[in-house]
Automatic annotation (TrEMBL):
InterPro entries according to UniProt: Arsenate_reductase-like (IPR006660), Thioredoxin-like_sf (IPR036249)
Species of provenance: Kribbella ginsengisoli
Phylogenetic placement of the source organism: Bacteria, Bacillati, Actinomycetota, Actinomycetes, Propionibacteriales
SUPFAM superfamilies reported for this sequence: Thioredoxin-like
Entry protein name: Arsenate reductase family protein
Family stated for the protein in its record: Belongs to the ArsC family.
């Protein structure tokens, strides 16, 4: 299991606490220090069944980099490049289970679903 986090984020802190309490074995990726490659981000987006603009944190100051970009497939490479260049824009935490199931785990219900019984 792998979780992409920003350690300063309260949702990320809650997610890692829940994983610890569940006794889960996981790897932490501090994606601000170790940004995903375009291929890694595309793979996560495919597993999430989302487009890059769906995972963009538009309330961040760095969102100026994508604010004017159309949300369409023609501009997808530009969105990916902007998210890689400004990883703070990527929604968090993103949790991928060992079977490849991936979710943006911002709420306890999603974490519970991913961790199973």
């Amino acid at each position: 299991m792998e979780i992409w986090i920003n350690p300063a984020c309260s949702k990320c802190q809650a997610a890692t606490t829940a994983l610890d309490e569940a006794g889960a074995t996981y790897t932490v990726r501090r994606y601000l220090d170790d940004p995903p490659t375009a291929e890694e981000l595309e793979a996560v987006l495919t597993r999430l069944n989302l487009a890059p603009w769906h995972v963009a944190r538009m309330n961040e100051p760095a969102a100026k980099a994508v604010a004017a970009l159309p949300k369409d497939e023609a501009h997808r490479p530009h969105w990916i490049a902007a998210l890689i260049a400004n990883p703070i824009l990527i929604q968090r935490p993103i949790l991928t289970t060992d079977d490849g199931t991936t979710a943006i785990a911002r709420d306890p219900e999603t974490l519970t679903r991913l961790l199973g019984p």
